[in-house]
Sequence to fold (429 residues):
Amino acid sequence: MAKTEWLEARQESTLVAAADRLGRLEDPIKPDLTGVTLIQVVAPDHRVVAASPAVRGLPPLTTVWPSPADPEQDVRTCAHQHLGCVNLAAQRVSNAADSNVVYAGDPAPAGSITGVIDSIFVIQGIALILLAVAMTWKVTGRTLRPVEAIRAELAAINVNDLSTRVPQPVGNDEIARLAHTVNGTLTRLEHAKDQMEQALNHQRQFAADASHELRTPVAGLRAQLEEAQLHPEDTDLKQLLNYSLRDVDRLQAIITDLLLLERVNTGTPQSRTLVDLAEIVRAEVARRPGRFPVRLDLAPDVTIDAVRTQIGRVLGNLLDNAERHARRSVSVTVRREGDTAELIVDDDGDGIAMEDRERIFQRFTRLDAARSRDRGGTGLGLAIARDIIETHGGTIVAATSPAGGARFIGRIPLAKSSQAGRSRTASPA
Fold:
């Protein structure tokens, strides 16, 4: 078998082994190289798993079984009478004990071994040269085998599934570093692909939410204007303008909230500063007229690293929700809990059922008539509060208030300086 034929047999066995590792093995096997027609994939129990058309239905071409220490061998066998002598490249699919073995090759030309032996005995000098060439070829083949494995694995990777990694040889030589670099690049590509899919999903969600929720006020506004156009003599202009402005205000509120959600979800960078949570609560409560007086229980020096306007928006949304459903009282608590700052808003309304306490944080969720559009909400307040707190590394949950209504508990990690100050305070003098 000529050197090029051995190379083709090894390349074919490498490609078939890669297909077997990725679960893409076909039966019958279609050779990728025209010079290799005899291909078999044999299981450890010597059962033929798949074969090329030329050897389909035949038992294993050879009993040679490469070991994990020497996973690739060149074999010449004359075991099958009607095939004659064949030259095969035998290669393990993996280093696992139960690995399949791939055999790939072609019938050997008659008399090739005799010619080589005669040449060795006739011309000793040529024999020595051939031996040196063979040794060089073998060493080169062993050296480049990991490169060929990397190439075959890359050729088999699907762009829709970037989770596959190329085999990384042991050691720190050039080939090992190449495999490490290729795997690092695949990891970055997979991460970039995931980020792109996430951004596309956010855009689809934004479009779906906008088209779903803006349809009602737009339809109502259109109906009022068309009714006034058809019956101008029966239209109260002042009342029409009031209704129209109310719908426009609702549209503006929904669009503003949707855009804020989109900015938060897409991670638009904003500068963070050290913020005293109690100061934000006092400022937000002071600027609100409110249906009820808001009771405050604020621990001092509860500092977080946050975007001040966003945390103010969280508190404003929670207070809006509490005031819409409270009967007589609303309270706000700021306290430390370990390395976490807790912002708690309570009301004495009807509360939230256990099965609804996660659903209320979804966009445009309204649980009953008391939470309808007539109460002034856009259905996005709690979704905005959750997304803002999560971008600050925190969580928010719904619970039962001691007053019998709803309780919302937002937890955000304390600023490092605040944690250090707490540790020094807790240390004995």
Observations:
- The longest helix spans residues 174-230.
- DSSP finds nine helices and twelve strands in the chain.
